[in-house]
Amino acid sequence: MEIQQGRNDIYLTLSRDGKPPSHFKLREFENSGGLVMVHRSTLESLEAVRADLCAQYGEEVQVIITDGIRTQEDNERIAEKYGWADEGGAVARMSKHLTAYGGIAVDITARVARTGARISQRTLGDICRRHFDFVKDDYRDGHVHADNRNRAR
Ligand SMILES: [Zn+2]
């Protein structure tokens, strides 16, 4: 599948001087069973979102990944809780979180590192729209969904 060309196409590096080469760890993208798959464009977009947030607030803002890759079983379990989108719920049957898409989707929140103050869903969604292909920011729990469904092709 062409869409998966960027899947896991990321250099893994170990920090030796205390300064991380990226702001995200592989484990942040894991499902509950430890499976991980990350598309290169996802990491690039997340770093860009983080940089814009830090610039806008003039201090360090942390982007927290609340959901990354999903197996079909993961998706069904989440749908049991939040309902299928085609039945009025929040979970898409062909969710872009599924492994079939190569790790192009994340659910995120963000907070000011120093104070822990949460960045509003609207602000985070607007900034995500600059750097991701698709953004959904009307979930009741306040998270933002972002994916690179177009550029990952
Ligand atoms: Zn999502």
Task: Note the main attributes of this structure.
4 strands; 3 helices; alpha+beta; binds zinc ion
What does this entry look like structurally?
This protein has a 4-stranded antiparallel β-sheet with strand order 1-2-4-3. Helix 1 packs across helix 3 (121-131). Helix content is 26%, strand content 14%. It has one domain (2-9, 24-147): Muramoyl-pentapeptide Carboxypeptidase, domain 2, CATH 3.30.1380.10. The chain contains 3 helices and 4 strands, in the order αβαβαββ. The chain starts with 39 loop residues before the first helix and ends in a 6-residue tail after the last strand. The chain is α+β, with helices and mostly antiparallel strands and 153 residues long. The structure holds zinc ion (ZN). Zinc ion (ZN) binds at residues 67, 97, 105, 107, 145.
Bound compounds, each kind once, are: zinc ion
What portion of the residues fall into strands of 2 or more residues?
5-15%
Q: What is the terminal-to-terminal distance?
A: 9 Å
CATH class: Alpha Beta
Topology order in helix (H) and strand (E) letters: HEHEHEE
Query: What is the oligomeric state here?
Result: single chain
User: Which structural category do the helix and sheet elements fall into?
Assistant: alpha+beta
Residue stretches low in confidence (pLDDT < 50, at least 5 long) are none
Number of domains: 1
Radius of gyration: 15 Å
Largest sheet: 4 strands, antiparallel
Enumerate the strands of the largest sheet in spatial order, edge to edge or round the barrel: 1-2-4-3
Report the average pLDDT across residues: 93
Q: Architecture, CATH level 2?
A: 2-Layer Sandwich
- How many DSSP H or I helices? 3
- Number of E strands: 4
Assign the CATH topology. Answer: Muramoyl-pentapeptide Carboxypeptidase, domain 2
Apparent shape: globular
